[in-house]
């Protein structure tokens, strides 16, 4: 190659326009790039130590425009009109943004939907092994991203054991109940979970603006009669609803309904869609809680359609096709995506033994961050 812009007979000229330029790429194609974007993302815009952007386009006196530009080796070199600053962009890096495609995300893994028979196949990890091996933590997070649930075994029988485990994938994220909760029978219960009654299928604290992403339930004791854990993949049920009842699906994905949690010292309210879609339009989760659904303040004639759809979806979730029933054992901790996995509990006999689950939450975004760090090279590597 020569510096005059000829490579393998292909034209390597950069064509300057009014708002951007057309640059020849290494595969022989060319792509258009906007001047603001090229200047804003000059490698010199990023501090090598903090890795944050230090160039501030708001401080530029003029809109950026190229005085000249050419291909030098594997880079596009631009001299800027305003101040003579020189930007060099790697051509391969440019190509990855040339078509306007969303940046690839290692944590954006396709979900694998599961049904009632998932228990035997559920991802299992030994907690001490996770503490010792970051590669195993990546496998655990992968299971959380793909299947939304995993069981951790050999948990230390201590409060600190749960904290240590949660910190492997994030920070403990408080809700209006505090940082941790203990599910056992209470004398003056403020929540159905603190009684021995059956706990209907639900996702946790939908009354919060942003319901917690990942839930940990550490089983410290479980010797009661009854009290089986009930879990299902809300995304699997919603995917079936989409096929079988598209009108119901549309109502449940488009309508925000009110949720509440109110007692003497709090009055928490939010509006949520029962079925959530991700940026690909795929079902990513559900928000269900009959005990925290507020009085639907929607037009009564709209409810003529909404309520039947809502009820049909709720009844689908009770089907044996989806519902995984099992007994959580002392020393196990089930970890699940609180926006996707719906959970509940069969009733138990309070006097028949001890039952104690200690729980907390972490954030899904922080879990994805941990996965990228553990599996990817990173932009600044
Ligand atoms: Fe719950």
Q: Give the helix tally.
A: 9
State the helicity in percent bands: 10-25%
Fraction in beta strands: 25-35%
The number of E-state strands comes to: 24
| N-to-C span | 29 Å
Distinct small molecules? fe (ii) ion
Structure classification: alpha+beta
Give your account of this protein's structure:
It is a single chain. This protein has nine helices and 24 strands. The protein starts with 5 loop residues before the first strand and ends in a 6-residue tail after the last helix. The longest helix has 18 residues. It has 381 residues and is an alpha+beta fold. The radius of gyration is 27 Å and the shape is elongated. The strands form eight sheets. It has a six-stranded mixed β-sheet. Strands 12-22-15-20 form a four-stranded antiparallel β-sheet. A three-stranded antiparallel β-sheet has the order 3-4-5. The site of fe (ii) ion has 4 residues, from loops.
List its traits.
381 residues; alpha+beta; 6-stranded mixed beta sheet; 4-stranded antiparallel beta sheet; 9 helices; 24 strands; 23% helix; elongated; disordered N terminus; binds fe (ii) ion
């Amino acid at each position: 190659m020569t510096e005059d812009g000829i490579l393998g007979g292909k034209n390597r000229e950069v064509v300057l326009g009014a708002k951007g330029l057309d640059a020849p790429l290494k595969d022989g194609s060319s792509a258009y790039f906007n001047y603001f974007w090229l200047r804003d993302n000059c490698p010199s815009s990023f501090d090598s130590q903090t890795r944050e952007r230090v160039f501030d386009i708001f401080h530029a006196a003029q809109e950026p425009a190229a005085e000249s530009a050419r291909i030098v080796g594997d880079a596009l070199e631009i001299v800027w009109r305003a101040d003579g600053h020189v930007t060099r962009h790697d051509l391969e890096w440019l190509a990855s943004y040339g078509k306007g495609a969303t940046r690839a995300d290692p944590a954006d893994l396709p979900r694998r939907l599961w049904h009632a028979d998932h228990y035997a196949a559920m991802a299992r990890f030994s907690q001490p092994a996770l503490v010792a091996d970051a590669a195993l933590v990546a496998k655990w997070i992968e299971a959380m991203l793909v299947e939304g649930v995993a069981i951790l075994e050999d948990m230390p029988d201590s409060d600190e054991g749960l904290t240590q485990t949660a910190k492997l994938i994030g920070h403990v994220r408080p809700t209006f109940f505090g940082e941790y909760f203990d599910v056992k029978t209470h004398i003056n219960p403020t929540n159905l979970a603190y009684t021995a009654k059956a706990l209907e299928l639900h996702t946790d604290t939908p009354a919060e603006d942003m319901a917690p992403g990942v839930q940990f339930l550490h089983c410290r004791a479980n010797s009661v009669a009854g009290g089986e854990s009930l879990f299902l993949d809300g995304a699997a049920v919603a995917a079936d609803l989409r096929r079988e009842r598209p009108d119901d699906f549309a109502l449940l994905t488009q309508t925000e309904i009110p949720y509440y949690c109110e007692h003497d010292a709090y009055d928490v309210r939010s509006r949520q869609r029962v079925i959530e879609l991700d940026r690909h339009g795929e079902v990513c989760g559900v928000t269900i809680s009959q005990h925290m659904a507020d009085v639907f303040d929607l037009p009564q004639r709209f409810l003529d359609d909404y309520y039947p759809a809502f009820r049909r979806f709720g009844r689908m979730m009770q089907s044996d096709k989806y519902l995984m029933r099992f007994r959580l054992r002392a020393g196990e901790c089930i970890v699940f995506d609180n926006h996707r996995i719906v959970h509940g509990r069969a009733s138990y006999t309070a006097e028949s033994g001890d039952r104690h689950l200690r729980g907390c939450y972490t954030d899904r975004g922080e879990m994805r961050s941990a996965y990228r760090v553990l599996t990817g090279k990173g932009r600044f590597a």
